[in-house]
Amino acid sequence: MKRIVLLFVALIATWYVQATEMVDVCIYGGTSSGVMAAYTARKAGKKVILVEPTDRIGGLTTGGLGATDIGNPYIMKGYTYDFYRRIGQYYGTNDMKFAFEPKVALGIYQQYIDEAKVNILYNHRLFSVQMEDNRIKYIVVEDSRNPSEKTNVTIYAKEYIDCSYEGDLMANSHVTYITGREGNEQYGETWNGAFWSLHHQFPDYVDPYVVKGDPKSGLLYGILPGKPTLPGKGDKHIQAYNFRITLTDDPDNMIPITEPANYDPSKYELLIRMKERSPFSDRGLEDLFIWSRMPNHKTDVNNRGGFSTDMIGENWDYPEASYERRAEIVQQHLDYTKGLLYFIGHDERIPLNVRTEMLRWGYPKDEFLTSDHFTPQLYIRESRRMIGRYVMTQADCESRVKVEDYIGWAAYTMDSHNCGRYVIQGMVKNEGNVEIGIKEPYRVSYRSITPKEEECSNLLVPVCLSASHIAYGSIRMEPVFMVLGQSAALAACQAIDRHEGIVQRVDAAEVYRQMEASAK
Fold first, then answer.
1. Average pLDDT of span 274-302
2. Interacting residues of 149 by C-beta distance below 8 A, sequence separation 6+
3. How far apart are CA 159 and CA 504, in angstroms?
C-alpha cells in the first residue's frame, strides 16, 4: 500500500513539474518579433520560454510575406540584419535578401531556436493573467487544440514580453489600450481617422445592389450597410486583413486550385461589376493582385485595387473577440480567399486569357505541410494598440519629433488598408486606404513599448506597441517588429540585472547600443 501511495505522489509531482514553468523571461507569441526576443534573452544567459498558440513560428515572415516591406535597409539592425543576411546566404549571396520562400524563413528561425536552445511551448494560448499590485505574478496558458484545465501550464517569470499580433497578454495585464482609429484632433494629425480612399478604389458608377438599380433587392456581398464615419473622425474600424498567398507555377511542385469547401460565387459579384466599368488590361492577374515573384517559381500575392484579397469590414470585432470567434473570422477569410482564386480561374465571366493565366498557378507541395499547403497565418495588420508612456504619432513618422530614448527605427509609408466599403450616391466606394510617404527613417521610442509603471512594471510590448492608428501603419512592418523584439529582450535582461525587474527604469541608450552591435 505504501508503495502505491509513493507512486501516486510521484505521478502528481511529475504532473506538477510539467504544468509549471519558472523562468527569467516569458515571451508570448512566436512571431518574428517573438523569435528574436527569445533568441536574444537566451544569448544573454537568461532562462526563457516562448509560448506560441499554433504549431508554427515566425508569424507573417514564415506565413507568405516574402516581399519584405522595408522602406529603407538602414533600419536593419542587430539580429534582424543577421536574419536577412542568412536569407541571402541561403540563396548564394553575402548581402541581405528581402524576397524569399516561407519555408526558407522558417528554417532560419529554427536555426536561431536551435542555436540558443530556446524552450518553445507550441499550441498553447493565454488562459489567464494573475497580477500582484502592478506586476504580472504568473500567467496560465491552455492547449489551443484541446482546452482543458488538466493541460494548463502556469508560467512564473520575472519579465514578460507580448510579441503577439493581437496583444492578448498586454490586454489582460491591466494595461490601457485602444482599437480602431483615433480622430485627427486627438494627436494633432492629418492622416488618422476616416479617409476617402484615393488608391485601391472602385471606379465610379459600380452598382451596389443585387438587382441593378433596385435598393430593395439588397446589397451585394462585401458592402456594409449604414453610413461611413465622417472624414477625420475616429471609430472602432480596423484596416482589412487578408492572406499573403504563396503559389507556384512549377508543375512538379504544384497542387491545382480546385473548388474549395463553402464556395459561393456570389461573393465575387462585385469583382464582375467592377470589371464591367474598368475592364481587364493586358496586365491580366496584376489588375487584381500585387503579384510579387519569389525565388523558385513562387509568389507573394497581396491585395490590389477596389476588390481583391482584402475582406474589408469583416474583421472589426477580431481584436476583442473570443478564440472561437477569431477562428470563425480566420475561416471566413480562408473560404473567401480560396474561393476567389478558384473563381478567377473558372468563372466564364472572367476573360479567357485571365482564366488561363490563373490556371497556371497552384499551391506549393513543399510549403505549409501541416495546413493543406496554404498559409495558416492571417495578416493581422492591426489589432489592439497599447497606450503606453509615449504614443508614436504622425509627428514622429515625419521626423518633426525626434525622441531621445530610441531603440529602433522605422521607415515605411504611413499605410492603412481600407476599413470599410459603402454605398455613396448609389455607387460602391471603399473608405480608409491611406498611403503617405515619409522622407527618412525615424526613431521608435523605448517608452512606446513599455506600459505606464503604475499599470504594469514587468511587461514589454514590441508588436502591439503604443502608437496612433496612422503611425502604427508605418511601424507595423516585420523587420521593425524583429528589431523591437530584440530590444525588448535586452531591456528585460537589463531590468532583471539592475533595476529590480522594473522595465520603466531601463537605460534605452544602452539597449540600442547592444542591439546595434550584436550583428557586427
1. 97
2. 142
3. 12
pTM of this prediction?
A: 0.95
Left, alpha or beta for 374 (phi > 0: left; psi -120 to 50: alpha)?
A: beta
Cell of 324: 472561437
Grid coordinates belonging to 122: 507550441
- DSSP summary character for residue 504: G
Give dist(CA 27, CA 37) in Å, integer: 7
DSSP annotation of 407: E
Give the tens place of pLDDT for each residue, 99-114.
999 999 999 999 999 9
In the prediction, which pLDDT does 429 show?
98
Q: Residue 449 in contact with residue 487, Cβ under 8 Å? A: yes
* Cα distance between residue 474 and residue 414, in whole Å: 4
In terms of DSSP bridges, do strands 434-436 and 414-416 run parallel, antiparallel, or are they unpaired? antiparallel
| Domains of the chain, first to last | 15-179+383-409+440-517 (3.50.50.60)
Take residue 20 and report the three cell numbers written for it: 509549471
The C-alpha cell that represents 452 in the structure block = 505606464
The answer for residues whose C-beta is within 8 angstroms of residue 7's C-beta and 6 or more apart is none
| Alpha carbons 356 and 304: distance in angstroms, whole number | 20
What's CA 49's distance to the chain center, in Å?
A: 21
Q: Are the CB atoms for 513 and 446 separated by under 8 Å?
A: no
Residue that has been written with the C-alpha cell 548564394 in this structure? 92
User: Residue type at 143?
Assistant: D
Cα 185 to Cα 204, 230, 468: the distances in Å are 31, 13, 12
